[in-house]
Amino acid sequence: MKVGFIGLGSMGYSMASRLAEKGFTLFVYNRSREKSLKFSREWGAEECRSPADAASLSDVVHIMVSDDEALMDVLLGGKGVLRVVRGKVVVQSSTVTPMASYRAYLLTKESGGRFVEAPVLGSISEARKGKLISFIGGESRDAELMSVKAYSSKVMYVGPVPQASVIKLAINAMFLTITASLGEAVALAESWGVEYGKLFSAIKVSWMRGIVERYENRSLNPQFPTRFKMVLAAKDLSYAFRALRYRGFTSLIFPAVTNTYLAASASGMDSRDYSHVVLYLRDLVRGKLIKSLSSTP
Ligand SMILES: NC(=O)c1ccc[n+]([C@@H]2O[C@H](COP(=O)([O-])OP(=O)(O)OC[C@H]3O[C@@H](n4cnc5c(N)ncnc54)[C@H](OP(=O)(O)O)[C@@H]3O)[C@@H](O)[C@H]2O)c1
Question: Closest ligand 1 atom, CA of 77?
Answer without folding.
Answer: 32
